[in-house]
Specification:
By secondary structure, this protein is mainly β. It has 1 helix and 13 strands, in the order H-E-E-E-E-E-E-E-E-E-E-E-E-E.
Length: 214
């Protein structure tokens, strides 16, 4: 509600209260504008990527469960409803859900033999530094080619990827994005690495930043 105009005939106290009210109104407006300007204009995912080996699908099941490896992408391939992985990075416990492990020991491995996680030994392993985007995971696509995946979190015209040329023991190596964001059931960011030719075993703590603008 706006403050009424100053009236003729007001005394000193009324005029003083009116001036204080106007100052508060002004300061409140300035504060609101400042907070709006400080609001984030994008969500961000910043991580270090390490990759070794080729395409190799393995399982980790409840009949002989092994500790999860932090930074590895897992998929819940079977679950009778007793397995609970929400404390180690899974957004839910549904069959088909992918997640990057944030811990080694799930809440519950569930019924022996009825709960399994799949993982690919050739997919990039990540050290997540910041993530305000949501559930992001990595998969092996082909020789020297990998996919950064999300559940419809990458927008075609609002996603930017920041990376740079990096170096390993063999000298300069590069990382690039093969094409624009692919938006379908799971939006994808295809990437490839090469040192003259496309190769695996080139990523080692390689920085990457993804920004999705509002």
């Amino acid at each position: 509600m706006s403050i009424p105009s100053r009236q003729i005939g007001w005394g000193t106290e009324e005029n003083l209260l009116w001036q204080i009210s106007k100052q508060l109104e002004y300061l409140t407006g300035v504060t609101y504008k400042s907070l709006s300007e400080l609001a984030p204009t994008y969500k961000v995912y910043t991580a270090l990527l390490t990759q070794s080996g080729g395409d190799g699908l393995l399982g980790n099941c409840s009949d002989d469960p092994q500790p999860l490896v932090i930074g590895v992408t897992y998929q819940i391939s079977s679950n009778d409803g007793t397995g609970d992985f929400t404390n180690v990075g899974a957004p839910n416990n549904n069959i088909g859900t992918y997640f990057v492990a944030t811990g080694t020991t799930p809440n519950n491995w569930g019924t022996p033999g009825d709960v399994c996680l799949d993982y690919n030994t050739g997919a990039p392993v990540v050290t997540v530094l910041e993530n305000t985007i949501g559930n992001v995971w990595f998969t092996y696509n082909d020789f020297g080619k990998y996919l950064i995946n999300s559940s419809n979190l990458f927008s075609l015209s609002k996603t930017m990827i920041i990376t740079s040329q990096f170096y390993n023991s063999n000298g300069a190596t590069n990382i690039s994005f093969m094409n624009d964001v692919i938006e379908n059931t799971d939006s994808l960011l295809p990437i490839r690495t090469w040192d003259g030719t496309t190769n695996d075993d080139l990523l080692y703590n390689t920085p990457i930043e993804i920004r999705v603008y509002n």
